[in-house]
Each structure stands twice: as C-alpha cells, then as structure tokens.
Amino acid sequence: RKPKKFPPGPAWLPILGSALEVSKLRKQTGYLYRATAELARRYGPVVGLKVGKDRQVVLYGYEAIRDMLSREEFDGRPQGPFYETRTWGKRRGVLLTDEEFWQDQRRFVLRHLKEFGFGRRTMGDLVEEESGQLVHAFRKRVMSSKNSGVVMSMHDAFGVYVLNTLWSMMAGVRYSHSDSELKKLQGLLTELFANIDMVGCLFSQFPMLRFLAPELSGYKQFIYIHQRVWEFLKAELDKHKATLRPEEPRDFMDAYLTMLSSDQKKPSFSESQLLAICMDMFMAGSETTTKSLGFCFLYLLLYPEVQRRAQAEIDAVVGRDRLPSLNDRPKMPYMEAIVLESVRMFMGRTFSIPHRALKDTELQGYYIPKDTMVICNFNGTLMDKKFWGDPDIFRPDRFIDEKGSVVIPDQYTPFGFGKHRCMGETLAKSNVFLFTASLLQNFNFSIPPGSPPPTTEAIDGVTPSPKPFKALVTLRAVE
Ligand code: HEM
C-alpha cells in the first residue's frame, strides 16, 4: 500500500504497482525520461511510483534535485538483484555502493589514481597523446580516398581512444583502435546499456523472472555481458599479479594489489572489489564520454555555423602548426561551451544514477520511507524550457556572457553534485574538448551528399546514444 504522504503518482496495482502506466507512457513517448516527464506534468516535480518490488521517487526540476543530492540521508545506492548480480552476488565497486564501504573505496580510488595522473597535468599529456592518435587515424582514412573526403560512421568513432585515456592510469594499457576483442566488448556494453535503465530492468523489478523467463527478462544477456567484461579485466589483473613489484607501482591496479598485502588493509578491500572497481570505471568511463562525443558531432553536422566559429577560434588561438593542448583551453571559451552543450544534449535525455533513502525522511514536504529509490530525471534541469528558452537547439553561446567568458548556471547538473558527484568530470570534459578541437582543426564534417540530415532522436537506455549516423570528413584547406 502507498504510505501516507508518499509523493503523488499513478495508482499502485497488486504485484505490478504502477509499471503498466509507466510502460504505456514509455511506448507513447518513446523514452523513459519523457514518460516520467509526462508524469511530472500531471503530478508535480516529485512523483511516487512502485514498479514491481521497487518503491521509486522520480525528481523533475531543479529545486527537488538539488535538495535530494545535497542531503546525506539520500546517499545510499539501491539494493537488490540487479545491483548485486553484476558483481557476483554482493554489491561491490564504487558506482553502486554506499556508506562506509563506498567512502573507503572512493577515497582510495581518487587518491591513488591521482598518483598516475588523474586530474593532474600528466593526465593532459595522456589526452593529448590520444587526440593525436585520433587525428592520425582520421587523416589516414581521408588520405586513402582519392578525392580527399571519406564518409565515416561517427557515433562510435571514439570508444577506444576515450578508454585509453583512463586505462593508461588504471592498468597501464593503451589499446589499438583495431583491437577486435576490445571493440567487441564495447559493442556488447553499448547493447546492454540500450536494454537496461538507470532504474533497473524487468528482472530487478520482478526478481522471479530470473527463473521464469531468463531470456525475456534480460537476465541471461546481463550475466553473459558482465561475465565477458569480468574475464577481460581478470586477464589484465593476472598479468599485473605476475609482474607486480610493490616498491614500484606502475598503475592503479598495482597500487590496489600492493594495498591488499599491506597491514593497513581494511575488510572492504579484496581482489574481487578491485575487479569491480575496474568494471565500474570501464563502464562509467567510456560509454558516457563516447556518447557525449557522438552527440557533439551529430549537432556539429546539423549546425555547420557552430563548426565554423569553433574553427575560427582554434585557428586564432592554436594555429595550424601544432595540435591543440589543454593549456589552450582557458583561451577557447567557444570550444569550452561546445563541450558543455554536448554533455547537456547527452544527459538531458536521461537520469542520474539512482540514490536510496538511508532512513525514513521527507523531501519537498513528502514522506520518503527508508530504502526508497530516488532518482533525478535530468531532462527537468538540462532541458527545462522555462530556464533555457530553446533547450532543443545546439547553441553553445548560452554558456557565454557578454564579456565573452564561460558561465555555468546552477541548473547545469549533468555530473550530479554532492558526495556521489561524478569522479570523472575533469577527464570527461578534457576528452570531449581536446578530441573535438583536434578534429575540427584538421577536418570539416558535413552531411554526406544525398543523405538526409541525421535524426536527433536517440536510442533510449541507461545512457542514451545517438542513432547511427555518418559524416563526410574532408581535410581542411591550409590557408
Ligand atoms: C560526459 C561524461 C560523464 C557524465 C555526464 C557523467 C555523469 C555522472 C553522474 C550523473 C553520476 C552520478 C552522480 C550521483 O549519483 O549523484 C556519475 C557518477 C560517477 N561517475 Fe561519471 N560521468 C561521466 C564520465 C565519467 C568518467 C570518464 C568516469 C571515470 C573516470 C566516471 C566515473 C564515475 C563514477 C566512478 C561515479 C560514481 C561516483 C560515486 O557514486 O561516488 N564518470 N557520473
């Protein structure tokens, strides 16, 4: 039964809760974020739902989101089969854990990743190295075509390069762009992310389906893909164990392994926890940035004037004799605004990672019982018409004030805030900035002749993707 003063929302039916109503709206609107936006229109910015066994509260609108994310009693992460199965029966990692376990692990990850460059100058070198490789690969393809132009698939052009910037620090590895095993794995992850949601999936809301309909409920695919990622990471871990020299840690994996055999080791530290952290970083670190870059280039095709202005800025600040670097960033507000706008377009179509109430509490005047899942629909902040005016238009200028400086309003929430705030914001923004600036310095991107403009409709899922699209890539003339 609905608890008293629980946030308003559709009726709760036995067993199903409000699942049918949500699913009907999702079918009508095409996306879960639009379905819950419609519910917010009907019931207000705090909507109460029950989907199978899960009590959920979806927040839409800045006030409610800010209130929830800044209060410690909402710092839990959900529990249940979905959040445990991914790490073999126990919640592990940093992405979906909470309380003391998560605090210890988050602190360790941040502190030790920094030793290998994370958030520091050396991280800039890694991103610069990778953007150089990206430009080189594009140039090779363009030059191999007789008329110096090539039609390329863009939505998935960045995955390996993005992962490399993080994996150099995590495991001291850079993968080749043609590494077929890694590409297969990234493809599987993209597929998985399109089939589940931030709020779980059928088998997490109706756990019996794991046994009654393992295929239909997505359980089988979920296990298969996680197993493949796990094996991939385990092979790297085994290599590290065989060559570890504790006095000279080469990367994060070494630092963690060294900690495992030290006397400061806390009970939350274990080898499977190390693998779970790697899995979290693998998933959180590459899918998000890659898809932001996908949206970035989609909109650059649709808004050629934005491309031209970015190129004019790159030419003025960097010129053509060297690649852009992160040192140029403070002098390139328009490029910086393109980064912000691309991430807005990506996260404005989805949710934050769900939180969980750690105790009975209240939010915006409503009663929220302990263990309720609380989730932010970022569409309500990042695409709010009242605030942004024209949220569907790709307009980097919205982040630039009359003096030409970058301004980021409070409503801009794609990385969340509070204690669970994204750990990879700096890396993600550096990647989007430098990959885009380096490519625009060297190439023009346009809609292939004879093709319709790419659609801005996305593929729904945990993180939305642009639908597959191609660009005509040509070398920029040297002036
Ligand atoms: C455009 C790219 C990215 C976006 C939009 C993004 C967004 C987010 C959001 C909204 C959260 C949830 C905050 C909350 O629960 O309140 C989050 C958490 C997280 N992100 Fe990112 N992220 C991005 C890139 C990355 C990268 C590159 C990494 C890896 C270095 C990363 C690692 C994480 C981790 C580990 C968490 C969990 C933090 C915690 O619960 O303590 N993210 N991210």
Automatic annotation (TrEMBL):
Keywords, sorted A to Z: Heme, Iron, Metal-binding, Monooxygenase, Oxidoreductase, Signal
Pfam families: p450
CDD domains the UniProt entry points to: CYP15A1-like (cd20651)
Cofactor(s) required for function per UniProt: heme
The keyword Repressor belongs to this UniProt entry's keyword annotation: no
UniProt family annotation: Belongs to the cytochrome P450 family.
Protein name: Cytochrome P450 303a1
Species this protein is from: Periplaneta americana
